[in-house]
Specification:
This protein has 487 residues and is an alpha/beta fold. The chain folds into two domains: 79-276, von Willebrand factor, type A domain (Rossmann fold, 3-Layer(aba) Sandwich); 331-477, Serine Threonine Protein Phosphatase 5, Tetratricopeptide repeat. It contains 21 helices and eleven strands. A hairpin with a 3-residue loop joins strand 4 (119-124) and strand 5 (128-135). Helix 3 (49-63) packs antiparallel against helix 10. The longest helix has 15 residues, at 49-63. The chain is globular and about 110 Å long.
Length: 487
Protein backbone atom coordinates (compact mmCIF):
# COMPACT_ATOMS: atom_id res chain seq x y z
CA UNK A 1 0.00 0.00 0.00
CA UNK A 2 1.34 3.44 -0.95
CA UNK A 3 2.41 5.72 1.83
CA UNK A 4 -0.06 8.53 2.54
CA UNK A 5 1.12 11.87 3.88
CA UNK A 6 -0.65 15.15 4.63
CA UNK A 7 0.41 18.24 2.69
CA UNK A 8 -1.45 20.78 4.85
CA UNK A 9 -1.78 19.19 8.31
CA UNK A 10 -2.96 22.34 10.10
CA UNK A 11 -6.34 21.96 8.43
CA UNK A 12 -6.88 18.84 10.55
CA UNK A 13 -7.44 21.14 13.52
CA UNK A 14 -10.82 21.92 11.96
CA UNK A 15 -11.91 18.45 13.03
CA UNK A 16 -12.26 19.71 16.60
CA UNK A 17 -15.17 22.10 15.90
CA UNK A 18 -16.58 19.50 13.51
CA UNK A 19 -16.74 16.94 16.32
CA UNK A 20 -18.44 19.50 18.56
CA UNK A 21 -20.95 20.21 15.82
CA UNK A 22 -21.72 16.53 15.40
CA UNK A 23 -22.19 16.09 19.15
CA UNK A 24 -24.55 19.08 19.33
CA UNK A 25 -26.56 17.75 16.40
CA UNK A 26 -27.51 14.56 18.21
CA UNK A 27 -31.25 14.47 18.94
CA UNK A 28 -32.03 13.79 22.64
CA UNK A 29 -34.29 10.89 23.59
CA UNK A 30 -37.99 11.88 23.77
CA UNK A 31 -39.54 12.37 27.20
CA UNK A 32 -43.02 11.20 26.19
CA UNK A 33 -44.72 8.34 24.39
CA UNK A 34 -44.06 7.87 20.65
CA UNK A 35 -47.75 8.29 19.60
CA UNK A 36 -47.79 11.70 21.27
CA UNK A 37 -44.39 12.60 19.88
CA UNK A 38 -45.74 12.33 16.31
CA UNK A 39 -48.00 15.31 16.96
CA UNK A 40 -45.68 17.38 19.17
CA UNK A 41 -42.51 16.94 17.08
CA UNK A 42 -44.07 17.07 13.64
CA UNK A 43 -42.79 20.58 12.91
CA UNK A 44 -39.18 19.83 13.89
CA UNK A 45 -37.18 19.17 10.68
CA UNK A 46 -35.47 15.81 10.49
CA UNK A 47 -31.73 15.59 11.00
CA UNK A 48 -29.59 15.94 7.88
CA UNK A 49 -26.34 14.02 8.37
CA UNK A 50 -25.15 14.91 4.87
CA UNK A 51 -24.09 18.32 6.19
CA UNK A 52 -21.64 16.74 8.61
CA UNK A 53 -20.41 14.40 5.87
CA UNK A 54 -19.88 17.29 3.47
CA UNK A 55 -17.98 19.29 6.09
CA UNK A 56 -15.78 16.29 6.88
CA UNK A 57 -14.91 15.76 3.22
CA UNK A 58 -14.15 19.46 2.84
CA UNK A 59 -11.77 19.40 5.81
CA UNK A 60 -9.98 16.31 4.52
CA UNK A 61 -9.66 17.83 1.05
CA UNK A 62 -8.16 21.01 2.48
CA UNK A 63 -5.69 18.96 4.56
CA UNK A 64 -4.31 17.56 1.31
CA UNK A 65 -3.86 13.81 1.59
CA UNK A 66 -1.18 12.80 -0.90
CA UNK A 67 0.66 9.75 -2.10
CA UNK A 68 4.06 9.41 -3.81
CA UNK A 69 3.99 9.69 -7.55
CA UNK A 70 6.44 8.62 -10.18
CA UNK A 71 9.78 10.38 -10.22
CA UNK A 72 9.80 13.58 -12.22
CA UNK A 73 12.66 14.48 -14.53
CA UNK A 74 14.82 17.23 -13.07
CA UNK A 75 14.61 20.38 -15.18
CA UNK A 76 17.93 21.79 -13.92
CA UNK A 77 21.22 20.55 -12.59
CA UNK A 78 21.07 19.95 -8.83
CA UNK A 79 23.06 22.35 -6.66
CA UNK A 80 25.76 21.12 -4.30
CA UNK A 81 26.36 23.43 -1.30
CA UNK A 82 29.57 22.74 0.63
CA UNK A 83 29.59 23.85 4.26
CA UNK A 84 33.21 23.84 5.43
CA UNK A 85 34.08 24.00 9.12
CA UNK A 86 37.04 26.34 9.74
CA UNK A 87 36.88 26.41 13.54
CA UNK A 88 40.17 26.21 15.49
CA UNK A 89 39.56 22.54 16.30
CA UNK A 90 40.15 21.75 12.62
CA UNK A 91 43.88 22.23 13.35
CA UNK A 92 43.96 19.03 15.42
CA UNK A 93 46.49 16.51 14.13
CA UNK A 94 44.73 13.24 14.88
CA UNK A 95 44.25 13.04 11.10
CA UNK A 96 47.60 13.73 9.44
CA UNK A 97 48.65 16.38 8.74
CA UNK A 98 45.58 18.04 10.30
CA UNK A 99 41.81 18.02 9.95
CA UNK A 100 41.64 21.23 7.91
CA UNK A 101 44.11 19.92 5.34
CA UNK A 102 42.22 16.65 5.04
CA UNK A 103 39.01 18.61 4.49
CA UNK A 104 40.60 20.64 1.69
CA UNK A 105 41.98 17.52 0.02
CA UNK A 106 38.59 15.83 0.26
CA UNK A 107 36.81 18.76 -1.38
CA UNK A 108 39.46 18.98 -4.07
CA UNK A 109 38.92 15.31 -4.85
CA UNK A 110 35.15 15.83 -5.01
CA UNK A 111 35.69 18.81 -7.29
CA UNK A 112 37.81 16.71 -9.64
CA UNK A 113 35.12 14.01 -9.80
CA UNK A 114 32.14 16.35 -10.13
CA UNK A 115 30.18 16.22 -13.36
CA UNK A 116 29.44 19.90 -13.96
CA UNK A 117 26.65 20.71 -11.53
CA UNK A 118 26.83 24.14 -9.84
CA UNK A 119 28.61 24.30 -6.49
CA UNK A 120 28.38 26.88 -3.71
CA UNK A 121 30.87 27.22 -0.84
CA UNK A 122 29.98 28.42 2.67
CA UNK A 123 32.63 28.83 5.38
CA UNK A 124 31.73 28.89 9.04
CA UNK A 125 33.29 29.23 12.46
CA UNK A 126 31.47 31.42 14.98
CA UNK A 127 29.50 32.80 12.04
CA UNK A 128 28.79 31.70 8.47
CA UNK A 129 29.79 33.43 5.24
CA UNK A 130 29.03 32.76 1.59
CA UNK A 131 32.53 32.44 0.16
CA UNK A 132 31.45 31.51 -3.35
CA UNK A 133 27.93 31.77 -4.80
CA UNK A 134 26.52 28.89 -6.86
CA UNK A 135 28.76 28.53 -9.89
CA UNK A 136 29.98 25.93 -12.34
CA UNK A 137 33.32 27.72 -12.71
CA UNK A 138 35.71 25.03 -11.51
CA UNK A 139 38.73 27.32 -11.88
CA UNK A 140 37.48 29.66 -9.14
CA UNK A 141 36.99 26.75 -6.75
CA UNK A 142 40.35 25.20 -7.57
CA UNK A 143 42.07 28.53 -6.91
CA UNK A 144 40.33 29.06 -3.57
CA UNK A 145 40.35 25.64 -1.91
CA UNK A 146 44.10 25.09 -1.31
CA UNK A 147 44.47 28.07 1.06
CA UNK A 148 41.36 27.71 3.22
CA UNK A 149 42.49 27.52 6.86
CA UNK A 150 40.95 28.54 10.20
CA UNK A 151 42.96 31.78 10.21
CA UNK A 152 40.85 32.99 7.29
CA UNK A 153 37.84 33.40 9.57
CA UNK A 154 37.43 36.70 11.45
CA UNK A 155 36.17 35.04 14.66
CA UNK A 156 36.73 31.69 16.35
CA UNK A 157 33.99 29.26 17.28
CA UNK A 158 31.80 26.61 15.71
CA UNK A 159 28.22 27.30 14.58
CA UNK A 160 27.20 24.90 11.80
CA UNK A 161 23.54 25.80 12.34
CA UNK A 162 24.26 29.30 11.00
CA UNK A 163 25.83 27.78 7.91
CA UNK A 164 22.75 25.62 7.31
CA UNK A 165 20.42 28.61 7.73
CA UNK A 166 22.54 30.67 5.35
CA UNK A 167 22.43 27.83 2.82
CA UNK A 168 18.66 27.47 3.13
CA UNK A 169 18.25 31.21 2.57
CA UNK A 170 20.46 31.01 -0.50
CA UNK A 171 18.47 28.01 -1.75
CA UNK A 172 15.12 29.79 -1.66
CA UNK A 173 15.07 29.77 -5.45
CA UNK A 174 17.47 26.91 -6.08
CA UNK A 175 16.00 23.44 -6.32
CA UNK A 176 16.97 20.65 -6.05
CA UNK A 177 20.03 20.74 -3.83
CA UNK A 178 22.21 18.94 -1.32
CA UNK A 179 24.00 20.36 1.71
CA UNK A 180 27.39 18.75 2.34
CA UNK A 181 28.55 19.57 5.88
CA UNK A 182 32.29 18.94 6.37
CA UNK A 183 33.08 19.18 10.08
CA UNK A 184 34.95 17.56 12.95
CA UNK A 185 31.98 17.48 15.32
CA UNK A 186 28.88 19.29 16.53
CA UNK A 187 28.08 20.30 20.11
CA UNK A 188 24.80 19.39 21.79
CA UNK A 189 23.45 22.92 21.53
CA UNK A 190 24.31 23.06 17.84
CA UNK A 191 22.64 19.69 17.29
CA UNK A 192 19.40 21.12 18.66
CA UNK A 193 19.77 24.24 16.53
CA UNK A 194 20.39 22.13 13.43
CA UNK A 195 17.29 20.03 14.06
CA UNK A 196 15.21 23.20 14.23
CA UNK A 197 16.88 24.63 11.12
CA UNK A 198 16.22 21.62 8.90
CA UNK A 199 12.87 21.77 7.07
CA UNK A 200 12.15 18.05 7.58
CA UNK A 201 11.12 17.35 11.17
CA UNK A 202 8.38 14.71 11.05
CA UNK A 203 8.21 11.47 9.12
CA UNK A 204 4.54 11.95 8.23
CA UNK A 205 5.09 15.39 6.69
CA UNK A 206 6.39 15.80 3.14
CA UNK A 207 10.11 16.61 2.87
CA UNK A 208 10.70 19.05 0.04
CA UNK A 209 13.90 20.58 1.44
CA UNK A 210 17.47 19.71 0.53
CA UNK A 211 19.12 16.66 1.99
CA UNK A 212 22.00 17.03 4.44
CA UNK A 213 25.05 14.80 4.10
CA UNK A 214 27.69 15.04 6.84
CA UNK A 215 31.38 14.27 6.37
CA UNK A 216 33.09 13.73 9.73
CA UNK A 217 36.82 14.42 9.98
CA UNK A 218 37.86 13.40 13.48
CA UNK A 219 39.13 10.39 15.37
CA UNK A 220 37.14 8.29 17.81
CA UNK A 221 39.10 9.43 20.88
CA UNK A 222 39.38 12.81 22.63
CA UNK A 223 42.16 14.98 21.28
CA UNK A 224 44.39 17.57 22.95
CA UNK A 225 44.97 20.76 21.02
CA UNK A 226 47.18 23.69 21.94
CA UNK A 227 45.24 26.93 21.64
CA UNK A 228 45.56 30.53 22.73
CA UNK A 229 44.58 29.59 26.29
CA UNK A 230 46.84 26.55 26.54
CA UNK A 231 46.10 22.89 26.02
CA UNK A 232 42.44 22.05 25.49
CA UNK A 233 40.70 18.69 25.31
CA UNK A 234 38.57 18.16 22.22
CA UNK A 235 35.78 15.65 22.92
CA UNK A 236 35.19 12.69 20.66
CA UNK A 237 32.37 13.33 18.18
CA UNK A 238 28.96 11.73 18.73
CA UNK A 239 28.65 9.72 15.54
CA UNK A 240 25.22 8.30 16.33
CA UNK A 241 23.76 11.77 16.90
CA UNK A 242 25.28 13.06 13.66
CA UNK A 243 23.95 10.07 11.74
CA UNK A 244 20.47 10.64 13.13
CA UNK A 245 20.71 14.32 12.22
CA UNK A 246 21.65 13.54 8.62
CA UNK A 247 18.84 11.01 8.24
CA UNK A 248 16.25 13.62 9.22
CA UNK A 249 16.50 14.91 5.65
CA UNK A 250 17.36 11.63 3.95
CA UNK A 251 21.12 12.13 4.15
CA UNK A 252 23.96 10.01 5.51
CA UNK A 253 27.05 10.32 7.69
CA UNK A 254 30.41 9.60 6.04
CA UNK A 255 33.81 9.06 7.63
CA UNK A 256 36.00 11.53 5.80
CA UNK A 257 39.18 9.78 6.92
CA UNK A 258 38.31 6.62 4.96
CA UNK A 259 35.65 7.41 2.36
CA UNK A 260 34.35 10.04 -0.01
CA UNK A 261 30.67 10.95 -0.11
CA UNK A 262 28.96 9.97 -3.37
CA UNK A 263 28.64 12.49 -6.13
CA UNK A 264 25.55 14.65 -6.07
CA UNK A 265 24.03 13.15 -9.20
CA UNK A 266 24.09 9.70 -7.57
CA UNK A 267 22.73 10.71 -4.17
CA UNK A 268 19.96 13.11 -5.14
CA UNK A 269 18.34 11.56 -8.20
CA UNK A 270 15.97 9.52 -6.04
CA UNK A 271 15.55 12.01 -3.20
CA UNK A 272 14.97 15.10 -5.30
CA UNK A 273 13.15 13.71 -8.31
CA UNK A 274 10.11 12.36 -6.49
CA UNK A 275 6.89 14.28 -5.96
CA UNK A 276 3.53 13.98 -4.24
CA UNK A 277 0.10 13.67 -5.83
CA UNK A 278 -2.53 15.69 -3.98
CA UNK A 279 -5.70 13.60 -3.55
CA UNK A 280 -7.71 16.44 -2.04
CA UNK A 281 -9.49 17.49 -5.26
CA UNK A 282 -10.88 13.96 -5.68
CA UNK A 283 -12.66 14.30 -2.34
CA UNK A 284 -14.50 17.34 -3.65
CA UNK A 285 -16.30 15.40 -6.39
CA UNK A 286 -18.82 13.74 -4.02
CA UNK A 287 -19.61 17.20 -2.66
CA UNK A 288 -21.28 18.03 -5.97
CA UNK A 289 -23.84 15.30 -5.36
CA UNK A 290 -24.35 16.47 -1.80
CA UNK A 291 -24.89 20.00 -3.10
CA UNK A 292 -27.74 18.70 -5.25
CA UNK A 293 -29.28 17.10 -2.17
CA UNK A 294 -29.09 20.41 -0.34
CA UNK A 295 -31.36 22.17 -2.86
CA UNK A 296 -33.32 19.52 -4.70
CA UNK A 297 -35.54 22.14 -6.26
CA UNK A 298 -32.60 24.07 -7.72
CA UNK A 299 -31.34 21.40 -10.12
CA UNK A 300 -32.20 23.70 -13.01
CA UNK A 301 -29.62 26.18 -11.69
CA UNK A 302 -26.87 23.58 -11.96
CA UNK A 303 -27.92 22.76 -15.52
CA UNK A 304 -27.90 26.46 -16.35
CA UNK A 305 -24.28 26.79 -15.18
CA UNK A 306 -23.01 23.87 -17.27
CA UNK A 307 -22.38 26.01 -20.39
CA UNK A 308 -20.05 28.16 -18.30
CA UNK A 309 -17.81 25.13 -17.78
CA UNK A 310 -17.33 24.46 -21.50
CA UNK A 311 -14.07 25.65 -23.08
CA UNK A 312 -14.09 28.90 -25.07
CA UNK A 313 -14.25 28.68 -28.85
CA UNK A 314 -10.99 28.31 -30.73
CA UNK A 315 -9.41 31.47 -32.04
CA UNK A 316 -8.58 31.88 -35.67
CA UNK A 317 -4.98 31.78 -36.77
CA UNK A 318 -5.06 35.52 -37.37
CA UNK A 319 -6.18 36.24 -33.82
CA UNK A 320 -3.60 33.88 -32.38
CA UNK A 321 -0.80 35.55 -34.28
CA UNK A 322 -1.97 38.97 -33.19
CA UNK A 323 -2.02 37.85 -29.57
CA UNK A 324 1.45 36.30 -29.69
CA UNK A 325 3.08 39.20 -31.48
CA UNK A 326 3.44 41.40 -28.42
CA UNK A 327 5.91 44.29 -28.61
CA UNK A 328 9.29 44.11 -26.94
CA UNK A 329 9.43 45.88 -23.57
CA UNK A 330 11.03 49.29 -23.53
CA UNK A 331 14.74 49.27 -22.60
CA UNK A 332 14.08 51.24 -19.43
CA UNK A 333 11.36 48.81 -18.34
CA UNK A 334 13.64 45.88 -19.11
CA UNK A 335 16.46 47.36 -17.04
CA UNK A 336 14.14 47.91 -14.10
CA UNK A 337 12.95 44.32 -14.30
CA UNK A 338 16.54 43.11 -14.45
CA UNK A 339 17.42 45.26 -11.46
CA UNK A 340 14.56 43.69 -9.51
CA UNK A 341 15.91 40.23 -10.35
CA UNK A 342 19.36 41.37 -9.26
CA UNK A 343 18.11 42.62 -5.90
CA UNK A 344 16.34 39.29 -5.37
CA UNK A 345 19.62 37.42 -5.83
CA UNK A 346 18.60 35.88 -9.16
CA UNK A 347 21.85 36.91 -10.77
CA UNK A 348 21.83 34.63 -13.81
CA UNK A 349 18.37 35.77 -14.83
CA UNK A 350 19.37 39.37 -14.22
CA UNK A 351 22.49 38.99 -16.37
CA UNK A 352 20.38 37.71 -19.25
CA UNK A 353 17.98 40.66 -18.87
CA UNK A 354 20.46 43.51 -18.47
CA UNK A 355 21.55 45.42 -21.56
CA UNK A 356 24.03 47.69 -19.77
CA UNK A 357 27.43 45.92 -19.92
CA UNK A 358 28.49 47.01 -16.43
CA UNK A 359 25.31 45.79 -14.78
CA UNK A 360 25.43 42.61 -16.82
CA UNK A 361 29.01 42.05 -15.72
CA UNK A 362 28.06 42.75 -12.12
CA UNK A 363 25.32 40.11 -12.29
CA UNK A 364 27.65 37.51 -13.79
CA UNK A 365 30.25 38.46 -11.16
CA UNK A 366 27.79 37.86 -8.33
CA UNK A 367 26.79 34.56 -9.91
CA UNK A 368 30.40 33.41 -9.84
CA UNK A 369 30.69 33.42 -13.65
CA UNK A 370 33.88 35.44 -13.81
CA UNK A 371 34.71 34.66 -17.43
CA UNK A 372 31.29 35.93 -18.54
CA UNK A 373 31.70 38.96 -16.29
CA UNK A 374 35.03 39.67 -17.98
CA UNK A 375 33.40 39.53 -21.42
CA UNK A 376 30.70 41.98 -20.31
CA UNK A 377 33.16 44.44 -18.76
CA UNK A 378 35.28 44.46 -21.92
CA UNK A 379 32.31 45.89 -23.84
CA UNK A 380 32.65 49.16 -21.91
CA UNK A 381 35.58 51.59 -21.82
CA UNK A 382 34.62 53.34 -18.57
CA UNK A 383 36.84 53.43 -15.50
CA UNK A 384 34.22 51.48 -13.58
CA UNK A 385 34.23 48.66 -16.12
CA UNK A 386 38.03 48.65 -16.23
CA UNK A 387 38.31 48.37 -12.45
CA UNK A 388 35.73 45.59 -12.28
CA UNK A 389 37.56 43.86 -15.11
CA UNK A 390 40.64 43.75 -12.91
CA UNK A 391 38.62 42.13 -10.13
CA UNK A 392 37.18 39.51 -12.50
CA UNK A 393 40.64 38.72 -13.87
CA UNK A 394 42.07 38.40 -10.37
CA UNK A 395 39.33 35.96 -9.41
CA UNK A 396 40.32 33.81 -12.39
CA UNK A 397 43.93 33.77 -11.22
CA UNK A 398 45.14 35.93 -14.12
CA UNK A 399 47.08 38.28 -11.88
CA UNK A 400 49.33 39.86 -14.53
CA UNK A 401 46.30 40.96 -16.54
CA UNK A 402 44.60 42.17 -13.34
CA UNK A 403 47.63 44.33 -12.53
CA UNK A 404 47.49 45.81 -16.02
CA UNK A 405 43.81 46.64 -15.57
CA UNK A 406 44.45 48.35 -12.23
CA UNK A 407 47.34 50.34 -13.72
CA UNK A 408 45.10 51.44 -16.57
CA UNK A 409 42.55 52.67 -14.04
CA UNK A 410 45.21 54.66 -12.18
CA UNK A 411 46.49 56.12 -15.44
CA UNK A 412 43.06 57.60 -16.08
CA UNK A 413 42.20 58.38 -12.45
CA UNK A 414 45.26 58.63 -10.15
CA UNK A 415 42.95 59.15 -7.13
CA UNK A 416 41.20 55.78 -7.50
CA UNK A 417 42.03 54.39 -4.04
CA UNK A 418 40.48 50.96 -4.57
CA UNK A 419 42.52 50.23 -7.68
CA UNK A 420 45.67 51.47 -5.93
CA UNK A 421 45.05 49.25 -2.88
CA UNK A 422 44.36 46.13 -4.94
CA UNK A 423 47.37 46.77 -7.16
CA UNK A 424 49.60 47.14 -4.11
CA UNK A 425 48.28 43.86 -2.77
CA UNK A 426 48.92 42.03 -6.03
CA UNK A 427 52.47 43.37 -6.21
CA UNK A 428 53.38 42.06 -2.76
CA UNK A 429 55.24 38.77 -2.40
CA UNK A 430 52.88 35.86 -1.59
CA UNK A 431 54.19 35.41 1.95
CA UNK A 432 53.61 39.08 2.76
CA UNK A 433 50.23 39.30 1.05
CA UNK A 434 48.91 36.48 3.22
CA UNK A 435 49.49 38.61 6.29
CA UNK A 436 48.23 41.93 4.93
CA UNK A 437 44.86 42.64 3.35
CA UNK A 438 43.91 45.63 1.22
CA UNK A 439 42.93 48.49 3.46
CA UNK A 440 41.13 50.52 0.84
CA UNK A 441 39.52 47.94 -1.40
CA UNK A 442 35.85 48.64 -2.02
CA UNK A 443 34.77 45.04 -2.35
CA UNK A 444 31.43 45.25 -0.62
CA UNK A 445 29.72 48.29 -2.12
CA UNK A 446 26.14 48.05 -3.35
CA UNK A 447 25.47 49.71 -6.72
CA UNK A 448 22.87 52.44 -6.99
CA UNK A 449 22.99 52.93 -10.76
CA UNK A 450 24.37 51.09 -13.79
CA UNK A 451 27.28 53.53 -13.84
CA UNK A 452 28.51 52.57 -10.35
CA UNK A 453 30.85 49.62 -9.85
CA UNK A 454 29.58 46.50 -8.18
CA UNK A 455 32.22 45.40 -5.72
CA UNK A 456 32.15 41.74 -4.77
CA UNK A 457 34.76 39.20 -3.94
CA UNK A 458 38.10 40.00 -5.50
CA UNK A 459 40.93 37.56 -5.41
CA UNK A 460 44.66 38.19 -5.09
CA UNK A 461 47.82 36.14 -4.79
CA UNK A 462 47.03 33.85 -3.09
CA UNK A 463 43.28 33.91 -3.86
CA UNK A 464 42.27 33.63 -0.23
CA UNK A 465 43.74 37.01 0.76
CA UNK A 466 40.90 39.15 -0.53
CA UNK A 467 38.42 36.58 0.73
CA UNK A 468 39.83 37.07 4.22
CA UNK A 469 39.43 40.82 3.87
CA UNK A 470 35.83 40.47 2.71
CA UNK A 471 34.97 38.20 5.63
CA UNK A 472 36.56 40.68 8.01
CA UNK A 473 34.47 43.52 6.63
CA UNK A 474 31.30 41.47 6.86
CA UNK A 475 32.11 40.53 10.44
CA UNK A 476 32.50 44.20 11.38
CA UNK A 477 28.96 44.88 10.14
CA UNK A 478 27.44 42.00 12.11
CA UNK A 479 26.78 41.80 15.85
CA UNK A 480 29.36 39.83 17.77
CA UNK A 481 28.17 36.19 17.81
CA UNK A 482 27.94 34.37 21.10
CA UNK A 483 28.82 30.74 20.59
CA UNK A 484 30.55 28.04 22.53
CA UNK A 485 34.20 27.49 21.85
CA UNK A 486 35.06 24.09 20.54
CA UNK A 487 36.92 23.32 23.75
Amino acid sequence: MSEIIVLRPLWLLALLPWLWWCWQARRPAPLFAPPLARYLLARIPPARPWRQIAALMMILALAGPARPQAQQPLMQAPLDVWLLDLSPSMLATDLAPDRATRARLLLQELLARSTGQPIALILFSADAYLALPPTDDRAALRALLPDLRPDVMPTAGSAPSKAVRLALDALARQSPARLLLVTDGVSEDELKALRHALPCQQRWLPCDGPRLDIVLLAGDSPMRLEGAQGLALLPAPDRSALRALARLSGGELYDGAHELPPLLSQTTSRQLGAGWQDLGPWLLLPLLLLALLARRGQLWLVLLCLPLLTPPPLQSAENVNQTAAQPEPLPQTRELGALELYEQGRYREAAAAFTDPIWQGNAWYRAGEYAKAEAAYRRSDSITALYNLGNALAYQGRFDEARSAYRAVLARDPKHQDARANLALLEQPPAQSQQQAPAGSALERTPTSPQQAEQGNSQAAPPVVLLRERLRKQAEKRPTPRVEETW
